[in-house]
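Ticket #4471: structure output looks truncated?

Reporter: J.K.
Steps to reproduce: submitted the chain below (174 residues) through the standard prediction queue, then opened the result file.
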Amino acid sequence: VNKVRLPASLTSFQSDTFSKVMPGELLTAQYCSMMKATSVTNLIILPGMTAYSPNNLYRGGEFSRVELPETVTSIGSSAFIDNTNLSEVVVRGSVGSVGDKAFYGCTAMEILPDFNGALTNMGTEVFRGCTGLREVRIPSSLREIPSKAFYFCTNIERLVVSEGVETIAADAFF
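Returned output as attached by the reporter:
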């Protein structure tokens, strides 16, 4: 199976529904509880969703690329925690809020997603353990870099903090 497209009417499916899917794309327009699609490598969230907040929904998945539509304005806590293959997050719209540990342990991510100048709220430990991060650009829309936001991101080569950032927690980059 190269591509799976789920209808907007679907609200949930079992945790092992896609456990045997061959690498490809999963397209979903809604919150789907308890999903772990470990063999799907490209996740595209279709328009219609405004908040992407399923805690641990794709925990430990094998997605290498995630595409969020213009309608998504927030990413919830632990949304992609421990997804060690996630290297690219494409934000089509303006994500203003990213919850605690949203990308915690995404070790393949080398560059932060471009939140299109809308990021105003970042939770704690958002990118903790993202050891692949090489370049970090903090947008001017973000006023505070919270505790452990980049904790154990040991390979950052370039850090750009834009004008407008007022507070950096003491342990933000430990």
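Triage note (M.O.): checked the attachment and the full token line is present. Residues 29-38 have pLDDT under 50 and may be disordered.
Status: closed, working as intended.
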